[in-house]
Structures are given as C-alpha cells and as structure tokens.
Amino acid sequence: MRLDLVRAQATSLHHLTGKDRITVVVIYPVCRDLDVARLLPASAFPRKMFIASRHFWTPTGTPGPSATGLLALLLILAGAARAVPSLITIENAALRRSHGLYVLDATLRFGIAGEPLKALRSGVPLTLLVEVEIEELREFLWDKRIGGIRQRYRVEHHALSGHYLVTNLVTGEQDGFPSIEDAAAALGELREIPVIDERFLRPGYRYEAAVRARLDLAALPGPLRLVAYLSSEWRIGSPWQRWGLKP
User: Fold this and answer.
1) Number of folded domains that form the chain
2) Among candidate residues 26, 47, 80, the one where a domain is terminated
3) Residues 214 and 148 in one domain
4) Segment 114-163, tens digit of pLDDT
5) Residue 169's domain spans which residues?
6) Which residue, of 21, 45, 80, is where some domain finishes?
7) Where are the beta strands (DSSP E) in the chain?
8) pLDDT tens digits along 58-92
9) Would you report the helix, strand and coil content of the chain in percent, each value rounded to 5?
10) What is the DSSP letter of 203?
C-alpha cells in the first residue's frame, strides 16, 4: 500500500466529516502486513486517529455510533487494502467501412477477480464501458472531435444456475456463460460496433481514432460506488489506444 494512498484516504475523511466535526477512532493496522500508524506521522492526517477502540467518538468525548463515521471507516478500509489495478489490454483495434459506417473490431484481454468478483457473485451487476472517439487533426487549432460512441455491457451472476449473463445494453442481446472466464472472453470480442457515418470523414483530412475500455464505476449502487472510487482493486481499465485513420 502506498503512503500517498493513505494520505488520500485521510483527505477524503476530512471532507466527509468536516461538517459534523467527528473524530474517528479506528484500530490499525488495517493491513496485516503493514503498520500504517507506525509509518505515518500524525501530521499526515487532518483529523486525530487514535489506536485504541472500535467506537466512534463525538467532540465531547462521549462514545456513540455515527453513520458518517461508519462510512468514513469503510472508505479507509477499502482504500487501505493492498491491491494492484487490473489493466485491460486492447489488441487488434481497427475501424473499417461497412454499409456506409465505420465499425470497430477489437479484442480485449482482462479478468474479473477480487472484490469486484465477490460483489458480482453477491448479486451486484458490473458494467463494462467501451469508449471510441474520432478526432480531426489540425495544424494550428485544437484537434476537433467529430464523433464517437459509449458502448456498455452488463455482467450479472445468476444465483440459481451459477451462470454469468452478458447483456449488450444498446441492442439488448443477452448470452449466458458457465464461468466468469468465459464471460470475460466473450466480452473481449468486439465486432462490428457502429462508430460514425463515413460521410463525416472527408478525403484529404487527417483523423485519429482512439478506444479504451473500463469498468463503469458510476453504474454501481451508491454505497458500493463510494468504496470503488477509492479502491485500486476496482480500477479495471485500459489507457487510450490511438491510431491514424485515413478516409
């Protein structure tokens, strides 16, 4: 776990509790292999954090439960868990003409594991967001965005059958798979996704296409969304992959 991540959690805690002025009392270490409190100076935290009790304390020193404090502790625990972001690798991305449109063909390589997989098996659907952008490259002006799409796929776990359902949220098409590996492999095969009308690309001009894919954290339920934004274990995505496009 990086120390700047811990400081980021402390800053987030400050914003969450600043209105209620609640001091949170937690037990460290939250990771078995790292004593955070011993490594970080007290100045790293905008609020005092004492290593003593599971209780939450009000400014008067009277112990009592606090919804804001509980949420803050949940965020700290989520962010402090040591995890490596999962990358999505984009292979063989290309745009080609088809029936008056430019369509995307690409292969994604990724897996779903850890906390996202636990949430999925507990009934929380996950959404994969694929973004494509087309820009006109200009010499003396900012590049001009002329089109693009945002395509979403939802993955759900069917508790009774144990299968995983993948739904194209644009077309409504749905397929079932016996394992999460099979579902991820199917999600990774993107074929003939309409992107832009070919008439928007003019001969003699220079264009650039870009594509990326990521887990759409905004589609998660509210309480889990807060945790996911602060946890590197939920950061499943790819950088933008760019290439030149000639009409």
Assistant:
1) 2
2) 80
3) yes
4) 999 999 999 999 999 999 999 999 988 899 999 999 999 999 999 999 99
5) 89-245
6) 80
7) 89-98, 101-109, 126-137, 144-157, 164-168, 174-177, 189-197, 206-215, 241-245
8) 344 444 444 445 554 454 444 444 444 568 999 99
9) 30, 35, 35
10) T
